[in-house]
Amino acid sequence: MVFLRDMNHATTPKESPLRSFTAFAADRTIREIDSETPVPTGKEVLLRTTHSGVCHSDIHARDGYFDLGSRGKLSLASRGMGESFVMGHEVVGEVLAVGAEVTDRKIGDRVLLYPWLGCTECVQCVNGAENACGAPRSIGIQLPGGYADHVLVPHEKYLLDIEGLDPAWAATLACSGVTSFSAINKILPLPPEAPVAIIGAGGVGLSAVAILKALGHKNIIAIDLNPANLALATDAGATQTLQIDAESSAATIGKSLNARPAGIIDFVNNSQTAAIGFDWLNKGGIMVQVGLFGGELVIPTAMISMKMITIQGSFVGNLGELHQLVELAKSGQIPRSTPHSGSLSADGVRDALDALENRLISGRVVLESSN
Ligand SMILES: [Zn+2]
Ligand SMILES: [Zn+2]
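Above: inputs. Below: predicted complex with zinc ion.
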């Protein structure tokens, strides 16, 4: 790929087409596809993808649906996705070309992409919560994403400076990082000594523990099935940990821990963990449901009134939150993990998704371009 580098104005692709590693939900394959390289206009920016994180949700995207328990399956076709699409929503890249109206980005800038775009016109979008838009246009979901050698970004405002950060780690802030951060924003402010529980100490849960600690919280309980995850949670800043099993309930947890959390963030959010959260939560508390593992929660409605609790869902985060998180990362307060690396190719995407699906790998995988 060679571009005429015409300073800050739109540039013209001269050679090879855009290569993407496209998922086909019908047969779950990932194939290399060539298409025309877009030329940015207006406020658009064309990135050369250098790093592209692999998210657990891409496994569901490759399958073409999410599990909704007794309500069946949520097909991605109903969410505005075609039968084939370019996934990849944790993208760091280099600015390769800019539209004529771009003022704050120049060719060569290394940037992190905020992918959770909305319609830009509804109340949620106007209020800065594009991730809560009813007509999403997320990059790597509805719009072509980072499993490609180039990504067209609709507006320069979705690009964040990451100077001083490891680009592979910075890529993960766009989904797993901001997912933790936004969920934490929903339970805070709380007094630093108020008990807060994190259910599920995998990659996203661990980053929540670390961010809570960085924000000065002093009473963080981590719960997981896996003792290795709990050891990592202690390292990240958990003040108490508890290993649960498939039989655990709020009653059994209550026998081991005498604290009732004021806030619970459930990064698993299956039938068991959601029930634990509801029964364990203190009066007036908030439970934030994040995980997409599927399941259902049956609760006595009168208990919602009597316990005066809030049940809130949280999905990724907004652009302002990603800016705050990047600043927190630059301040050095969040422990920096080193993601597993892979190659940004059809094989690389497939191998990473297979490894995640079969639980052969823990932590994040970030694919890197060899160009
Ligand atoms: Zn993700
Ligand atoms: Zn909108």
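The longest helix spans residues 167-187.
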